[in-house]
């Protein structure tokens, strides 16, 4: 499609407004984390690292950060296993209900978070607790894994469809076992997709708050929950800005790496 010069400028203007609407508030949060004025007068007249030091020495924030990291790693690990297995089933085999299975995998991330959270909370109360399993870190990890599976599934399925089964069939024709084919052929082809999917799953889990609210047990507090619980405490406002800035950085890094890895692997796969 060819656009006129005016159309190009209008499109660029709309893009700039959209990006500004998204990223200017985030930039304000980051700058305020260095603002020496406790009332956050704007523009900042002086900058300081005091709030970063206080945030680091805040036991509640550090414990919440550790909980978020544990939850993200656990959810990403479960998502990698389940998402990869389902992607192989859908991408490599034909069976009745394949399209329905694909829809069921994608559905949790399309549903409102409060609906997923209520469903998981009810499931834990009616199924898990009678079996002796109480809400805690494990319940949060399982809750996050339900929607993290989607990003791994999509990444792996897209890679399987792009590479096809020719390499695996050639490996089998040359006498390789199923395990050897997976180790020397399939896994190297999927490695970047798995890594990108794992990073995205971790990022998705790390900043989740709605599902966490419904699935966390007593004493379990992730970093987003800690921010929300301290948001309206004036004496905690400077520390919250620091933690929010840290959360922005931690969320951006894995997403950026996943995007670069996916783009590089897609470019490297062209013949």
Textual characterization of the structure:
Helices cover 77% and strands 0% of the residues. By secondary structure, the chain is mostly helical. Helix 3 runs parallel beside helix 6.
Q: End-to-end span in angstroms?
A: 26 Å
Could you spell the SSE succession in H and E letters? HHHHHHHHHHH
Number of helices: 11
CATH H-tier superfamily:
MetI-like
What spatial form do the alpha-carbon principal axes imply? globular
Radius of gyration: 23 Å
Largest sheet: none
The count of DSSP E runs of length 2 or more, i.e. the number of strands, is: 0
Q: Give start-end ranges of low-pLDDT stretches.
A: none
CATH third-tier fold name: MetI-like fold
CATH architecture annotation name: Orthogonal Bundle
CATH class, anyone?
Mainly Alpha
Structural class category = mainly alpha
Strand content bin: under 5%
Chain-averaged pLDDT: 80
Task: State the helicity in percent bands.
Answer: over 70%
The number of distinct structural domains comes to: 1
């Amino acid at each position: 499609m060819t656009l006129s010069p005016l159309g190009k400028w209008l499109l660029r203007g709309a893009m700039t407004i959209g990006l500004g609407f998204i990223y200017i508030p985030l930039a304000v949060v980051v700058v305020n984390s260095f603002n020496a004025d406790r009332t956050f007068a704007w523009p900042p007249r002086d900058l300081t690292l005091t709030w970063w030091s206080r945030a680091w020495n805040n036991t509640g924030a550090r414990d919440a950060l550790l909980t978020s990291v544990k939850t993200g790693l656990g959810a990403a690990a479960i998502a990698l296993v389940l998402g990869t297995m389902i992607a192989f089933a859908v991408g490599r085999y034909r069976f009745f209900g394949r399209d329905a299975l694909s829809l069921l995998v994608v559905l949790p991330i399309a549903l409102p978070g409060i609906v997923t959270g209520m469903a998981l909370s009810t499931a834990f109360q009616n199924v898990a607790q009678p079996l002796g399993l109480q809400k805690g870190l494990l319940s949060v990890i399982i809750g996050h894994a339900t929607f993290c599976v989607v990003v791994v599934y999509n990444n792996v399925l897209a890679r399987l469809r792009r590479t096809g089964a020719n390499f695996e069939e050639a490996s089998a024709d040359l006498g390789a076992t199923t395990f050897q084919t997976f180790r020397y052929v399939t896994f190297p082809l999927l490695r970047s997709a798995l890594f990108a999917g794992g990073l995205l799953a971790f990022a998705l889990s790390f900043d989740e708050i709605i599902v966490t609210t419904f699935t966390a047990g007593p004493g379990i507090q992730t970093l987003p929950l800690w921010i929300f619980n301290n948001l309206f405490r004036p004496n905690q406002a400077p520390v919250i800005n620091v933690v929010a800035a840290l959360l922005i950085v931690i969320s951006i890094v894995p997403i950026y790496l996943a995007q670069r890895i996916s783009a590089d692997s897609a470019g490297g796969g062209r013949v």
